[in-house]
Write a structure and sequence with these properties.
heterodimer; A: about 575 residues; alpha+beta; Dipeptide-binding Protein, domain 3; seven-stranded antiparallel sheet; four-stranded mixed sheet; 23 strands; B: globular; SBP_5 (chain A); peptide transmembrane transporter activity (chain A); ABC transporter substrate-binding protein (chain A); SBP_5_dom (chain A); Peptide/Ni-bd (chain A)
């Protein structure tokens, strides 16, 4: 009850904010059109200097790479660190522009990582093989409680770092057995610039995964004082932190002069300013008090591109929002029911009417930015109400009984889930639908615990740009909760064996084609149906230029130039 | 007087214990698993969940959790939030900001409210009286967040007189939010003062003062006002405490990192230690302000004695 009252007042605030921001927007038209967009060619030669500011929300964890898996903290951490490999922001391909010279293997299982010379942390200490091995072991070690621990689950010896934990019905945990090791046996330092990684099973795209936040190196200073590090991280990236992060306020980062990478920072300083409300941030950009905001009020989205001209920046986001099905529920156990649902949803109508272009309709389980994406991956993920009804007629689905639609509350999902409900009701002739929404803290345990009584909202943001990232972590048997994110409880032997075959393939093209065959099984079995892909949107002032936001929803702060 | 104050201060101890236990119980009763919510759509390994639950005593039953908290409290440890930051630090960092905002708001509400109330009260049904009545009715009926966005838009964006948000410009940054925060109470203070003044002006002692040939300014300023202020002081004292706790909307819209916002955010994340710690601070202030108000009664009206 307390919650719903609070949510209601928030909704009221938002509604009002929309109205006001809308008035504000109209008056600023002149400003937007005169924006000078083409000063500064963005060519990385000499740094342009200057200072600028950008919007972030409050990070949820200490600023430790192994503990950071949400966007806000991620923006800070990704500006402070550079991983083994990087991803091209236009083509999304993996590039060896990070610390790794090469990552090679003969059998896709034992990988040799060779580091480049000359990389240093912000405190001057060199980035060595140990910097990676120690960091990975720390994150993987269960008692450290690091959120990104599961990224190392495929490395040999990971299980010995977890111990045995029992969870009762109320979610209480008991450590039955302490971990027997603190270091994964699969990691071995060969010399200062070389280490080997032995995986439990072959994994052909392992190098590509190592660009993710979880795999960043840590300096020795981290192990001396973890708490201080979490406030003021010492990384090896284009920016360095000369001061602590202040909750509710933010952090100012300076260019790291000895940065060894190609993408050195252009500006001298960047202030990442914490905002509690996106309307305030947006108004501040309008007034010129803040240079960049990538969290925009809903009211700004429809009219934004006209208003801001070339100071409105868009890019595809590497994510996918599906409507997932509780395959464990008898009513949804027949794949034909799920396929009928998939065909009864008009995705274009929802992305246009509700999201006004801030989402694009989805057909494939993988995001368009990843390797292996196919535009028409599945015939059932397109709107075809007639066929949907024919298919549903074949089953013994009871249309007279209302369906439940689940989503997490307070996160802006109400409108589109309701639209999906209306479409399912009208297009399939189902008597009615009930909206069931819960706070994230209640929603997630229920979802992990097979508690969904109807189709539900899920979501996945990629960790690395490969189709595998949208398949194995979500639909394989080894990813069942609580250790994994397969909350539809979909299990399919053929799917699992295709994934494992793909993981072993030494030819990248062959691997991709095997992953796609696995995706075809999702099309036949339909544990979830893709609805839409996200679009990053940001606005900036005339003071800054060359502002880009990548598929991971990170503003590439190092390439921002200050015009003034 | 000294004994009275000492007795009142001693009473804060059971009140604080009761308050913390109550808040602890409420947080405990909140449905859902805050640890699971930390990871969002991503998985969180059982070992990591166990480590976090253990660190925050979440595996213990309510009473044990509370006793462990009290034990820490006696050693000056208020616990920590989910990002590992001590609650005491959050409080010391944010309390000054909240106090500054609340005090400025109270100063605004007292100065403007009392002046408007006096002007309205000494000549009832005059133009001034009607103006105060209409404008206070207007302010009372507009929700705070409307006022906040309006102020931000008009004085921040259009005229550019004040910063739109944040604290980067020091004292100037507090003016706009303080006015918004004060607006509602200002209306109450004005109306309280008006009624009180109007009532006192009809009293015998005022007639006597007038008959003695005192100047009207002395009659109102020295005699009537002092007697009329008791209800206003009662209101303002309680209001100062509630302005500190209730500034959530204002702090959010104006992006001011105060305690109100911290409580709001930690309720969303179910960070028990943070909620209990900050609310305890609120309770403490509430008790203190009430005590100060009671003492002020004696100062304003010498007939009141506490012995």
């Amino acid at each position: 009850m307390r919650n719903s009252a609070r949510k209601a007042s928030l909704a009221a605030i938002t509604a009002l904010a929309l109205a006001l921001a809308a008035c504000g927007g109209d008056d600023d038209d002149e400003g937007g059109d005169t924006g000078s967009g083409d000063s500064g060619d963005g060519d990385t030669g000499e740094a342009t200097g200057g200072e600028f500011s950008t919007y972030i929300g409050e990070p949820e964890n200490p600023l430790i790479p192994g503990n950071t898996n949400e966007t806000e903290g991620g923006q800070i951490v990704d500006s402070l660190f550079t991983g083994l490999v990087t991803y091209n922001s236009d083509t999304y391909e993996m590039e060896f522009n990070g610390v790794a010279e090469s990552i090679e293997s003969d059998d896709q299982q034992t990988w040799t990582v060779t580091l480049k010379d000359g990389w240093t942390f912000h405190d001057g200490s060199p980035v060595t093989a140990e910097s990676f091995v120690d960091a990975w072991n720390w994150t993987a070690y269960g008692p450290n409680g690091a959120g990104n621990s599961y990224f190392f689950a495929n490395i040999e010896g990971y299980d010995e770092l977890q111990g045995v934990v029992e969870t009762d019905d109320e979610g209480n945990t008991e450590v039955v057995e302490e971990p027997s090791a603190e270091e994964m046996s699969g990691l071995e330092v060969v010399d200062e610039r070389t280490f080997t990684v032995t995986l439990k099973d072959p994994f052909s795209i392992f190098p590509m995964t190592t660009g993710y936040t979880a795999f960043y190196p840590l300096p020795e200073a981290f192990f001396e004082d973890e708490e201080a590090f979490g406030r003021q991280p010492i990384g090896n990236g284009p920016f360095m932190a000369n001061e602590e992060f202040v909750p509710g306020q933010g952090i100012t980062l300076d260019r790291y002069e000895d940065y060894a990478g190609d993408d050195a920072a252009q500006a001298d300083r960047v202030e990442l300013r914490v905002y509690a409300d996106e309307n305030t941030g947006y108004t501040d950009v309008q007034a010129g008090n803040l240079d960049i905001s990538d969290t925009l009020p809903v009211s700004a989205i429809g009219t934004g591109p006209d208003e801001w001209g070339d100071r409105w920046v868009e890019s595809p986001r590497g994510d996918m929002t599906p409507l997932a099905f509780p395959t464990y529920d008898e009513r949804y156990s027949d794949p034909r029911v799920r396929q009928a649902f998939a065909m009864a949803i008009n995705r274009e109508a929802i992305t246009e009417a509700i999201f006004e272009g801030s989402r694009t309709p989805a057909n494939s389980w993988a995001s368009p930015v990843v390797e292996g994406y196919r535009e028409d991956a599945c015939e059932f993920n397109t709107f075809d109400p007639d066929r949907a009804n024919e298919l549903l007629d074949e089953t013994d689905f009871d249309r007279s009984e209302p369906i439940d639609l689940w989503f997490n509350s307070g996160a802006g999902h109400d409108q589109w889930v309701e639209a999906v409900g209306n479409q399912l009701r009208d297009n399939l002739g189902i008597s009615d639908y009930n909206l069931e929404s819960l706070d994230f803290a209640e929603y997630l345990p229920l979802r992990d615990d097979q508690g969904m009584t109807g189709p539900y909202r899920a979501g996945w943001v990629m960790d690395y740009p490969h189709i595998q990232n949208f398949l194995e972590p979500l639909y394989s048997e080894s990813a069942l909760p609580p250790a994994g994110a397969n909350d539809t409880y979909f299990t399919n032997e053929e799917f699992d064996s295709l994934i494992s075959e793909a993981n072993q393939a030494d030819d990248p093209d062959e691997a991709v084609s095997l992953y796609q065959q696995a995706e075809d099984i999702l099309c036949q079995e339909m544990p979830s149906t893709p609805l839409f892909y996200g679009v990053n949107q940001l606005v900036h002032t005339e003071r800054v230029d060359n502002v880009t936001i990548n598929a991971f929803s990170r503003i590439e702060l190092q390439s921002v130039t200050v015009v003034e | 007087m000294g004994r009275y104050i000492a007795r009142r201060l001693l009473m804060t101890i059971p009140v604080l214990i009761g308050a913390t236990l109550l808040i602890f119980t409420i947080v405990y009763a909140l449905p859902g698993d805050p640890v699971r919510a930390l990871a969002g759509d991503r998985p969180l390994t059982p070992a990591a969940q166990a480590a976090i639950r253990d660190e925050y005593n979440l595996n213990d039953p309510l009473l044990i959790q509370y006793l462990k908290y009290l034990g820490g409290l006696l050693q000056g440890d208020l616990g920590q939030d989910f990002s590992g930051r001590p609650v005491s630090e959050t409080i010391t960092q944010r309390l000054p900001i909240t106090v500054r905002l609340a005090v400025l708001a109270v100063v605004i509400e007292v100065i403007i409210g009392v002046i408007a109330g006096v002007l309205a009260g000494i000549r009832r049904n005059s133009y001034m009286d009607n103006l105060v009545l209409v404008s206070t009715t207007l302010v009372v009926s507009i929700p705070v967040f409307v006022l906040a966005f309006l102020a931000q838009y008009v004085f921040g964006l259009r005229f550019g007189w004040f910063p739109i948000a944040g604290l980067s410009e020091g004292f100037r940054s507090y003016i706009l939010p303080a006015f918004v925060l004060a607006a509602l109470s200002l209306a109450y203070v004005a109306r309280l003062t008006r009624t009180s003044i109007a009532e006192n002006l009809r009293q015998d002692y005022v007639r006597t003062a007038k008959a003695k040939g005192l100047k009207p300014s002395v009659v109102v300023g020295k005699h009537t006002l002092r007697n009329s202020l008791i209800p206003v002081v009662t209101f303002v004292g309680a209001d100062l405490a509630s302005l500190m706790a209730g500034a959530i909307v204002t702090e959010t819209v104006f992006n001011i990192p105060g305690l109100g916002r911290a409580v709001f955010e930690s309720v969303q994340r179910q960070e028990g230690f943070v909620i209990v710690g900050i609310v305890t601070v609120f309770v403490f202030f509430y008790i203190t302000f009430n005590l100060v108000v009671d003492i002020l009664y004696a100062v304003i009206d010498p007939r009141i004695r506490y012995d």
